Amino acid sequence: MSLILSGVFNILQLVTVIICFLIIDKTGRRPLAIFGGLATGIAYTIIAILSGLYANDWTAHPDSGWAFVVMAFLFILIFGLTYSPLGWALPSEVFPNATRSKGVALSTNTNWLSNFIVGIATPPMMDNIGYRTYIFYAVWCVLAGVWAFASAAETSGKTLEEIDDVFGDTNGHEEHEDMRAAAMSIMRAPVPSTV
Length: 195
Fold this sequence. Notes:
The chain is mostly helical. The chain contains 8 helices and no strands. α1 packs parallel to α3 (62-81) and α7 packs antiparallel against α8. The longest helix has 30 residues, at 100-129.
């Protein structure tokens, strides 16, 4: 049964990521981040409540057990629709050309390091604090949603220069002017004779 559920989890996440890429430009990045943070926080809170009340005897409370599974699926759906693709889409949009490769590499490293830490930390947390582990993650999810509401800028449909303006940076404008000057000098250069 766990192998089947694992397969279903992975297929659902793939489907929701595809849906996200179809809607991300229409809905915008910021609304997805706000919704994702708050909705995953709610899912984790319900999981924590169910786990806190019934984890000692799931067999006596099968409906609660299935509700737990449904909430876990819901979390995966919401995460796949929001933060999973946003973690890859946003970094490539916010860094200017000169630092984009380093910025995307840093964000990718941060993503994988965070996944590693969660994977290492969760089993001992479950052993030591049980259902409170879900509360811990719920708080971080809600904080991510609040941060997105209070601080995240919308990058959808903006040029690099407009994104630089949002963040108070001038690198994009400088790069644009450098590229323009280089193009103009190439256009003015005499064409060598081939004869």
